[in-house]
C-alpha cells in the first residue's frame, strides 16, 4: 500500500477497531482492534488468517460473503458476526467492509464494532416482547387493541374464535358492527364517554353477534392508553365469554319463575278450593244458627250442637289451609289498628274455657304491669297465634293446666316488643322433634293425628305470622313435664292511650239493637242461601230488608230509594259490587251517596280489602259469615259511627 503510512496514522487514531486484509490475511490491525480481541501486540495478529478470528459457525457465511461478491452480487457492506477473543471468549460484532484495489491487489478494510451489550439488551427486549406476545395470543380471555374510532388494531385468538371472524375481517369492522343491535347505542355511548375522558374505564355485560348469527354474552372491561401528549391513543378491551353462565342464570331465573308461578297457582287453587267449600258452609252454619234459634227438643238441640261443632272444626281446617296458602302466596296483609290486648287475651281464654273445664284444667292469665293497655297491631293475628298455642296446650295436657303470660321485652317511643308465653303441664315434646315443629304438615308423632287430630299447619302458620309481626317463636319442653311456647311481636304505641281505650270500649261495649226498627237495609246477593241467611239475621235484628239478586236491579232500586245500610256482594251478575260502590260514592249521586256499605266476599285475599275501601265501602266481611262478627260490624257502623253519616230525611 503506497499510502500505508498515511492510513496507519489515521487508523491508529480511530476509536473503532480496524483491520486491513489481503488474501484473507491480516496485514494491519489498529490498537482498538487489539483491545477488542484482547491482544497486546499487533505481531500476534499480522499474517494470521482472518477467518481464525471468527467463530466456526460464522466462518462459512463470511467466506460466502466473499464468494457472493465474486459472483458480482451486491456485497453487503454491513453484517453481523461473532468474533473470538485471545482468551476464546465470543463477542458479537458488527462488521463494515470496504474494498480497495491497488496494483491489481485487493485489500479489504473492515471496521469492527463490539455489539455484545447491545445484542444482550436486544435479546432481553425480544424475549420480553415474545413473552407479552405469547401472553396476548394465548390468553384465555379475548384481548383487543382498538383504535379510538372503534376499529380493532390487534386482537388475540380468543376474540376470533369467540366471534367466528378472522382477524383481517374484524379489522375492517367497527366494534358496533358485531355488537348485538339492542346493545349498540348504549355501548357506543359509554365508549364515547371513555374517549372524552369522562370516565377512566368501564366494565359491563354486553352481547356480541357471532359471524353465524348466534348471540354471545360477554363481560367486557375497557380502558384507555394515553399518548405522551395526554390524548387518547388506543383502547384496550378484555372480553370474557359468559354465554354459558348467562344461559344457566337465565334457566335458573326461568325455573325460579316457573316454580313461583306453580306455587302461586297452587295457592290460588287452594284459595279457590276453600272458597268453593266455604260458600256452602256459609249456608250450613247459618241455617244451623237459625234452627237453633227456634223451638227444639233437647235431643234435636243436642244433635244440632254436635253438627255445629263439626262444621266449626271443618271451618278451622279450611281456614288453616286458606291462611297458609295466603301467606305462601304473599297475600296476607297485617292490619295496624289500636286494640286492647287484655280484652283480646281474655277473649281467647274464653274461647277455650269450656274445653279446659271439661278436662279439669286450670287456665291462668298474667299480664305484666309494664304492658300497655292499648297497642297498635293486628289483633286478629295475635288472637290466631294465641288460639293455636292455647288450643294445642289444652289438646296435649291431661292434668294440671295452662298459664298464659305476656311481658315487655323492649320498647321505644314508637313501638314495643312483647313476649308471650303459653306454658302447659302436658305430655311435652321429645328433644329431637322440636326443630320439626314449625315446619308445615309436621306432627311429633303421626299417631297424634289419630289421637288428637289436626293438620300440622298450626305452628307453621304461627311462625309465619309471628315473622310478619317482626318477632320469633320457639319452644322449650320436657317430655312428661310440659311445654313452654314463646313468641315475640312488635306493636306500635299510640299517644293518649286513654282516648284509644275509651274508643275501643265504646266499640266493643256497644250493645243492643235499639233504633234498628224502621231502618232499611238493602241486601245485594246472588247466592240464594246467603241472601236468605243475611235477610233472616237482619230481620231478627229488627231491620226492614230489601233483597235483590243482581247488580242491575241494585242500581235501579238505589236510584229511587234511600237505605240506612247496604250489604253488597262483590261478584254479581251484570254490574259488580265495586262498580255499584264507586257509582254510589260519586258526587253526582244524590240518593244513598253516604249510606254505609258492607262488602261481602267469599275471597279473602290480600288487596281485596283495599279494593273495597278504595271503591268507597266502609266495611268488609268475608264468607262464611260469622254471625257474631256480622252483628258486631252492623252495630258498629249504624250505631257507633252513625254521627259520621248523613242523616236520612
Ligand atoms: P296441628 O294443627 O296438627 O295441631 P301444630 O303445628 O299446631 O299442628 O302442631 C304440630 C305438632 O306439634 C302437634 O301435632 C303435636 O305433636 C306438637 N305439639 C304442639 N303443641 C304441643 C304441646 N303444647 N304439647 C305437646 N305437643 C305439642
How would you sum up this structure in a few lines?
It contains 19 helices and 22 strands. The chain starts with a helix and ends in a 9-residue tail after the last helix.
Describe the fold and architecture.
The radius of gyration is 49 Å and the shape is elongated. It has a five-stranded antiparallel beta sheet with strand order 2-1-5-4-3. A five-stranded antiparallel beta sheet has the order 7-6-10-9-8, sandwiched between helices. Residues 497-515 and 642-649 have low confidence and may be disordered. Helices cover 43% and strands 24% of the residues. With 649 residues, it is an alpha+beta fold. Helix 8 (243-292) crosses helix 15 (528-540). The chain contains 19 helices and 22 strands. Bound molecules: adenosine-5'-diphosphate (ADP).
Structure keywords:
649 residues, alpha+beta, 5-stranded antiparallel β-sheet, 19 helices, 22 strands, 43% helix, elongated, binds adenosine-5'-diphosphate
Which cofactors or ions or other ligands sit in this model?
adenosine-5'-diphosphate
What's the total helix number? 19
Shape estimate? elongated
Main sheet: strand order: 2-1-5-4-3
β-sheet strand percentage: 15-25%
Summing up helix and strand content along with how strands pair, one would put the structural category as alpha+beta
Sketch the major β-sheet.
5 strands, antiparallel
Rg from C-alpha positions? 49 Å
Strands, total number = 22
- Give the CA-CA distance, first to last residue: 146 Å
Unreliable segments (pLDDT under 50, ≥5 consecutive)? 497-515, 642-649
Task: Work out the helicity level.
Answer: 40-55%
Averaged pLDDT? 83
